[in-house]
Design a protein that fits this description.
single chain; about 170 residues; mainly alpha; 8 helices; about 50% helix; globular
Length: about 170
């Protein structure tokens, strides 16, 4: 499924994440007595693969990344699959629309089985950026329980004006 792209040169990442700042801290843990139905209190801070995903995501969202490095970073995130989930969730929740769009695009390429990832994508269906909304919809389109929200989002995108700089603001996609 092709995905929408806001620009060829992404905006720089805004700040280092709190996860990067706390990599020397032990992960939060649940009580030592747990039943099979008990979920862990939180995800581990960072695995080696998640750190690789973070590095690849930063390459995708920083300006000036050369095409071969950008392609390799995108393939790295796709190949990491679930290990990239914490980075993608952070990207979907970023204040930077390029980071949200990039994360949603990767989700469209990899699938969205993780419930936390799905929740972040559902929030992105109402994003101010039409590119984020389109890619979030593409990511959730294959999940039957989200198809009504996806159809609603895609339908509303048809009436959006073209957001590209220099385009005719009165032109719609209809």
């Amino acid at each position: 499924t092709p995905t929408a792209t806001a620009s060829e040169t992404p905006a720089p990442a805004s700040t280092a994440s709190s996860t990067e700042q706390s990599t020397n801290s032990p992960p939060a843990t649940a009580s030592t007595e747990s039943s099979p139905a008990t979920k862990p209190a939180s995800r581990p801070v960072d695995s080696q693969k998640t750190a690789e995903a973070r590095e690849a995501f930063q390459l995708l969202t920083q300006p000036g990344t050369e095409v071969p490095q950008w392609d390799a970073a995108q393939q790295k995130l796709v190949s990491l699959g679930p290990d990239a989930t914490p980075v993608l969730v952070e990207g979907l929740q970023s204040s930077n629309p390029i980071e949200r769009e990039t994360a949603a695009t990767i989700c469209a390429l990899t699938g969205t089985e993780d419930k936390e990832l799905q929740a972040a994508l559902i929030t992105c269906l109402k994003d101010e950026s039409p590119f984020v909304r389109a890619n979030a919809a593409a990511s959730l389109a294959q999940i039957p329980q989200h198809q009504t929200a996806v159809i609603s989002t895609l339908t509303s995108l048809l009436a959006d004006s073209d957001p590209l700089p220099g385009s005719d603001p009165d032109r719609t996609f209809v």
